[in-house]
Amino acid sequence: GENVEQHPSTLSVQEGDSAVIKCTYSDSASNYFPWYKQELGKRPQLIIDIRSNVGEKKDQRIAVTLNKTAKHFSLHITETQPEDSAVYFCAATFYGGSQGNLIFGKGTKLSVKP
Amino acid sequence: AAGVIQSPRHLIKEKRETATLKCYPIPRHDTVYWYQQGPGQDPQFLISFYEKMQSDKGSIPDRFSAQQFSDYHSELNMSSLELGDSALYFCASSPRSGGRTDTQYFGPGTRLTVL
Question: Do A100 and B56 touch (CB under 8 A)?
Fold first, then answer.
């Protein structure tokens, strides 16, 4: 089955700096890679996603890149703000037929210091 | 916009008791996923339903069962509760278009505490 590894487990940056979180996946059949932000005790919230037919996607300060050959994808947050502080999870899945359950990485706790 | 609704939001049970968690998906979403998240851990997939049929099964204990009803809401039934079942339980819903499932939207979760 799919296995997703996420690094680093914790990340501390100064406000205004960039943050990068990296994930690798094992199943080459995976074709959908979402990123979720989760604040303590709250629901995971989708912040950006990418499908395997796209190499890069950007939404304001957030971007995701996907390297299918190397089976890794990364989240880039620019101009970080204190409200970006949260746990970020990457996930992977194969969408097709009856499947689609997300396999999550272990999470990255991002702290943005003012 | 309407979101996924889960009830109850908090639940406290004793060991060996039973619990029922409910999930109401976003309107016109026909696929429901259940995830369990322990403290400091990532969400773990339990089970999913599409059009009222079980579509995939993950690390769900035999003590747990679930179903999706005709109005697409889903219930997770948990019996013989153990201390280790204490966790956040999330339901997520997605629309299925052309045989391909789309983005999953998570509900607020049910925090289950087993004493």
Answer: yes
d(CA B99, CA B73): 20
Cα–Cα nearest to B75, from B49, B96, B51:
B49
Cβ-proximal residues to A69 (8 Å cutoff; 6+ apart), any chain: none
At B89-106, the pLDDT tens digits run 999 998 876 555 568 999
Give residue-wise pLDDT tens across range B17-48. Answer: 999 999 999 998 888 999 999 999 999 999 99
Q: What is the β-pairing status of strands A4-7 and B110-114? A: unpaired
Which is nearest to A25 in space by CA: A93, A108, A112, A98? A93
**Contact yes or no for A43 and B104 at CB 8 A:** no
Interface test with B, best of A43, A53, A99, A103 (most B CBs within 10 A): A43
